[in-house]
Design goal:
The chain is of the alpha/beta class. The chain has helices at about 20-35, 50-60, 80-85, 115-125; strands at about 45-50, 70, 105-110, 130-140, 150-155, 165-170, 175-180. It has a single domain (about 20-75, about 100-180), classed as Rossmann fold (3-Layer(aba) Sandwich), CATH 3.40.50. It is built from four helices and seven strands. Bound molecules: uracil (URA). Keywords: Glycosyltransferase, Transferase.
Length: about 180
């Protein structure tokens, strides 16, 4: 049990930012180990739209993964979707295989409150019963509101509520991370 309200991490500056491609290499190494724990044809990557789906797509290509990826758009499954709105969410979920008895690796760019991960797992369990689900994220930024922890993480880099990471990808699928100042509730 913690006493009092948790202290907010200090404001971060642009020159402290981790390099997205270095984090991606660490994420990739961790995902290789997760995949090796199961028969390759029973493992699927599940990218959380949008940053997680980009990462999952690049992992599939770089690791020559033969099984299909799934894409989960968590907007309708999030408990706070009325607050965050639907405007940033475009593609519908797509799960082109039977998830039952499969080993799923959920991939996301930024792990924050844990609500997107919970929403993604709810959606997956609505359509079947996976054998296992692991979680691989590029950055864990702290600020958890649910008991969710990653199995693989590129880096733990805490941010205050007034800042967000924004992942982008260029035409060559190379990742970059920017910082955005936000108002928090
Ligand atoms: O910092 C954050 C937190 C959640 N999602 C993001 O894309 N960035």
């Amino acid at each position: 049990m913690q006493n009092g309200s948790p202290k907010q991490p200090k404001q971060r500056s642009l020159d402290e930012l981790p390099k997205a491609e270095e984090l991606y290499q660490r994420l990739k190494q961790g995902v290789v180990e997760l995949i090796a724990a199961h028969p390759a044809d029973e493992v699927h990557l599940v990218g959380i739209y949008s940053g997680g789906a980009w990462l999952a797509q690049r992992l599939k290509q770089d690791l020559a993964i033969k099984t299909d990826n799934a894409l989960i758009n968590t907007s309708l499954y999030r408990d706070d979707f009325r607050k965050i709105g639907l405007h940033t969410q475009k593609l519908p979920s797509s799960v082109p295989f039977d998830v039952t008895n499969k080993h799923l690796i959920l991939v996301d760019d930024i792990l924050y409150t844990g609500r997107s991960v919970r929403a993604a797992m709810n959606e997956l369990f609505d359509i079947g019963r996976p054998a296992t689900i692991a979680l691989a994220v590029l950055i864990d930024r702290g600020g958890r509101e649910l008991p969710v922890q990653p199995d693989v993480v590129g880096e733990v880099f805490t941010l205050p509520k007034t800042q967000r990471f924004v992942l982008s990808q260029d035409e060559e699928h190379v990742f970059d991370i920017a910082l955005k100042e936000v108002e928090h509730d």
